């Protein structure tokens, strides 16, 4: 692809597109036979007779431009149908997800008869030596009367153009959704991965310190009675640390206060490494009476070594727990991704709707922030048959819309997202509700229209709810909305029996 180079596009912009269009006129007209030959090479025009081709050659207006020439401005009025005889036009948009489009040689483009096109979709540049044959919209009635076969060609071209634009926009929507999903997953995986890496690095250092402490402890040559007493103290303290398997929890202020108290006690006992021991013990339920009980059995340097070895063991265990918890979280995320995408499964699955909603929430967890999520899942909800991956697209679209809506008033009230499932006759009902500003009544009937969006240009294509509606319809279901200020519920009804749905 060549890059467009314009000597002074600002001057052209000031003079307008009529000036640009006039500058494309060739210095000398091309011989009509050469134009006829060029038209005959265009496959789209194959159905036209020789007489019709010759009429086009005689009545069209030639335009030529060198590589890099600005052909038209985005947003300016379009008045011509254009047949590209040679070269390409590259169209660049400054806004929107589809920022680039190529018009290649042989294309019939521009404003076609029966088209509602009013303006150019972006700035167009010539790539290569451009040669076109143009027909002003004022000549369209005469054109169609003189070349009747062109009507079918125009209609087919319009349909193809609509399908292509829709495909491009839908592809851009999918890529946009994939980008959001990747960003969410990256954020979610980064936290446990960073925690696991940090804990593993610290664990390596702590294990070396623990080994040194155990060596010093072994060199003390305790008597059998002292060993037994020390072992019994450790066992009693460990039983206290996690009663009923629940770890002790305390706030930062209480831990800080306990650390100061323990530092003072260790200093009184002559323990020089109190700065290393006190922070570890402060995060446990060990109190001074229990430490005094150990101090009655072991004194002096032996007390420092004994507490140091015990504290180092606790610290190593905590770091190991951090690695285990972090890797467990990573495994859960990977499992959620597999469940969300239904990887390695048949196209049609038996779907647990509550689990499907939770898997989708996992993908969007980084966006939840301070959002309160309320889950109201019916316990007796049956599994339904369907395309799990496609239904997850539905849940993703509905949840993202709800989060976007609540973000509009997040500074004024607490955001509450409610997910609800229940039986409703012969269908299962899924509701995604938010306490955002609501959908204005005047646009409520349009929210499922393709390309309709209330978001700023470039932020969305308006295909999310349209896609969700099509996928729900594919499952013989129904998508509806109930909305008022402060409460919006999108309802999805899916039949339990899917006989004939696929």
UniProtKB/TrEMBL annotation:
Signal peptide coordinates: none
Keyword Kinase among record annotations: yes
UniProt cross-references to SMART domains, sorted A to Z: HATPase_c
Catalysis performed (reactions): ATP + protein L-histidine = ADP + protein N-phospho-L-histidine
GO molecular function: phosphorelay sensor kinase activity
Keyword terms of this UniProt record: Kinase, Transferase
E.C. code: 2.7.13.3
Histidine kinase domain location: 315-498
Annotated Cyclic nucleotide-binding domain residues: 44-161
InterPro entries hit by this protein: cNMP-bd_dom (IPR000595), cNMP-bd_dom_sf (IPR018490), HATPase_C_sf (IPR036890), HATPase_dom (IPR003594), His_kinase_dom (IPR005467), HisK_dim/P_sf (IPR036097), RmlC-like_jellyroll (IPR014710), Sig_transdc_His_kin-like_C (IPR004358)
A Pfam family hit: HATPase_c
The protein's name: histidine kinase
């Amino acid at each position: 692809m060549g890059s467009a180079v314009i000597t002074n596009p600002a001057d052209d912009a000031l003079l307008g597109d009529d000036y640009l269009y006039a500058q494309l006129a060739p210095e000398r007209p091309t011989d009509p036979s050469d134009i006829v030959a060029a038209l005959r090479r265009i496959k789209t025009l194959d159905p036209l007779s020789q007489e019709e081709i010759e009429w086009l050659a005689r009545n069209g207006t030639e335009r030529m431009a060198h590589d890099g020439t600005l052909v038209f401005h985005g947003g300016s009025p379009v008045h011509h149908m254009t047949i590209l005889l040679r070269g390409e036009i590259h169209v660049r948009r400054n806004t929107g997800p589809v920022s680039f489009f190529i018009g290649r040689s042989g294309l019939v483009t521009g404003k076609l008869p029966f088209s509602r096109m009013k303006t150019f979709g972006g700035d167009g540049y010539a790539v290569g030596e451009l040669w076109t044959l143009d027909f002003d919209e004022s000549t369209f009635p005469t054109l169609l009367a003189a070349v009747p076969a062109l009507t079918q060609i125009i209609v087919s071209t319009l349909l193809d153009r609509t399908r292509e634009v829709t495909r491009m926009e839908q592809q851009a929507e999918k890529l946009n959704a994939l980008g959001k999903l990747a960003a969410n997953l990256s954020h979610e995986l980064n936290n446990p991965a960073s925690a696991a890496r940090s804990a593993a690095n610290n664990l390596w250092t702590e294990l070396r310190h623990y080994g040194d402490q155990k060596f010093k402890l072994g060199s003390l040559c305790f008597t059998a009675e002292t060993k037994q007493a020390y072992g019994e103290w450790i066992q009693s303290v460990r039983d206290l640390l996690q009663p009923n398997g629940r770890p002790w929890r305390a706030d930062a202020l209480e831990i800080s206060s306990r650390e100061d108290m323990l530092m003072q006690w260790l200093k009184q006992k002559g323990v020089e490494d109190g700065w290393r021991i006190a922070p570890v013990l402060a995060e446990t339920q060990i109190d001074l009476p229990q430490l005094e009980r150990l101090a009655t059995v072991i004194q002096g340097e032996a007390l420092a070594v004994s507490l140091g070895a015990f504290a180092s063991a606790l610290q190593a265990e905590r770091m190991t727990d951090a690695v285990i918890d972090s890797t467990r979280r990573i495994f859960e995320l990977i499992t959620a991704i597999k469940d969300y995408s239904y990887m390695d499964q048949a196209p049609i699955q038996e779907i647990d709707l509550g689990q499907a909603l939770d898997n989708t929430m996992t993908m969007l967890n980084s966006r939840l922030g301070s959002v309160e999520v309320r889950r109201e899942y019916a316990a007796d909800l049956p599994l339904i048959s369907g395309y799990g991956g496609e239904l997850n697209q539905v849940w993703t679209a509905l949840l993202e819309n709800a989060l976007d809506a609540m973000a509009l008033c997040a500074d004024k009230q607490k955001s509450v997202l409610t997910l609800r499932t229940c039986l409703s006759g012969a269908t299962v009902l899924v509701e995604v509700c938010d306490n955002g500003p609501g959908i204005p009544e005047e646009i409520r009937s349009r929210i499922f229209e393709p390309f309709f969006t209330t978001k700023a240009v470039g932020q969305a294509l308006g295909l999310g709810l349209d896609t969700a509606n099509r996928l729900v319809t594919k499952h013989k279901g129904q998508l509806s909305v109930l909305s008022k200020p402060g409460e919006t519920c999108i309802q999805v009804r899916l039949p339990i029996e899917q006989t004939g749905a696929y």
